[in-house]
């Protein structure tokens, strides 16, 4: 018979995060929610507890094999103290799983620091005219000397204002729907990149 009971390790992990949520996150929730400053101190604490590396490669500081159950437990436990902070392991997991498929340079520059809580990387998919429909995005990527030229606009991008880079989804000129869409790691201090805060959107 298949058992759906949590393991002792999973129970201990959840209990540790629940205590952290109630003792550390909950008292400062309102201040963080009303601030535009990114809570780097909390991010580093999450990293030290192994929350940011769930399911990501061990050689870059992660836990190794994918573990959606542990990821779910972490998110649920953290949400008891701060629903915004609770999104961190999911965001890092989504970003990290894509960075892990990049070059070794990309993995060293962004994946390892991401897992250590030293940087963040945004997911730049949503656009003003198409929302989060990846098949309808309008941002264009064209080959250029020494790289690519990306032209377009993204909106409502979580972590955009504090991120070191973004995973930017763009399509080849003339392509339609999902065909021709690629993901590019774009440093947000690169020439031609601008970003602005959307008030009330975190």
Structural class by sheet pairing and helices: alpha+beta
Enumerate how many helices there are, as a single number.
Answer: 6
> Biggest sheet, strands in spatial order?
1-4-5
Give the oligomer, counting copies of the same chain as homo and different chains as hetero. Answer: single chain
CATH level 1 class label of the largest domain: Mainly Alpha
| Largest beta-sheet details | 3 strands, mixed
Output the radius of gyration.
Answer: 18 Å
Tell me the series of helices and strands, N- to C-terminal.
HHHHHHEEEEE
Uncertain segments: none
Report what the structure shows.
34% of the residues lie in helices and 14% in strands. The protein has helices at 8-25, 29-33, 40-48, 68-79, 88-99, 104-115, and strands at 121-124, 140-144, 147-151, 165-171, 181-187. A hairpin with a 2-residue loop joins strand 2 and strand 3. It has two domains: 8-115, Butyryl-Coa Dehydrogenase, subunit A, domain 1, CATH 1.10.540; 121-187, Butyryl-CoA Dehydrogenase, subunit A, domain 2, CATH 2.40.110.10.
Task: Characterize this entry briefly.
With 202 residues, this protein is of the alpha+beta class. It has two domains: 8-115, Butyryl-Coa Dehydrogenase, subunit A, domain 1 (Orthogonal Bundle), CATH 1.10.540.10; 121-187, Butyryl-CoA Dehydrogenase, subunit A, domain 2.
Topology:
Layout: H1 8-25, H2 29-33, H3 40-48, H4 68-79, H5 88-99, H6 104-115, E1 121-124, E2 140-144, E3 147-151, E4 165-171, E5 181-187
Parallel strand pairs: 1-4
Antiparallel strand pairs: 2-3, 4-5
Helix pairs in contact: 1-4, 5-6
